[in-house]
Write a structure and sequence with these properties.
β2 and β3 form a beta hairpin. With 125 residues, this protein is mainly alpha-helical. The protein is built from 5 helices and 3 strands. α1 packs across α3, α1 crosses α4 and α2 crosses α3. The two termini are 26 Å apart.
């Protein structure tokens, strides 16, 4: 898990985002157990209270569930992965569009540049 301590976004929210990205990339799956608060704090070198807050946020969002005596698990919901992937993709698209508008680039030019880049990537890969 990579955390950027210079990022203005709170660390506990960065931790939530990293779990979501791991799910979207297939590194985590619904039903997987995630490390305990203490293990995660040691791995990430952050305060255990920060990890606890991240875990509380993930549970509040319905991303995880804690089973007494067993640990914390990614909620075993087949629709969860699709929902997270869709939400993260839309956030990336909105950020991209906002950046292009900030540069004063017209929508048609943005679309042309995006198609060109996508086309070039599909030829390479």
């Amino acid at each position: 898990m990579q955390l950027n301590f210079d990022n203005p976004k709170p660390i506990y929210l960065q931790m939530v985002d990293e779990v979501k990205k791991a799910l979207a990339r297939g590194e985590l799956s619904p039903g997987d157990k995630i490390p305990s608060h203490k293990e995660r704090a040691q791995m990430s070198q952050v305060n255990p209270n920060t990890v606890q807050r991240a875990y509380q946020e993930m549970e509040r969002e319905g991303l995880t569930e804690t089973l007494r005596g067993q640990g914390t698990f990614i909620r075993n919901d087949p629709a969860l992965l699709l929902k997270i992937r869709s939400e993260m993709a839309m956030a990336a698209v909105k950020l991209f569009i906002e950046e292009m508008r900030g540069l004063g680039i017209e929508p048609g030019e943005t679309e042309r540049m995006l198609r060109s880049e996508l086309y070039e990537e599909s030829e390479e890969g």
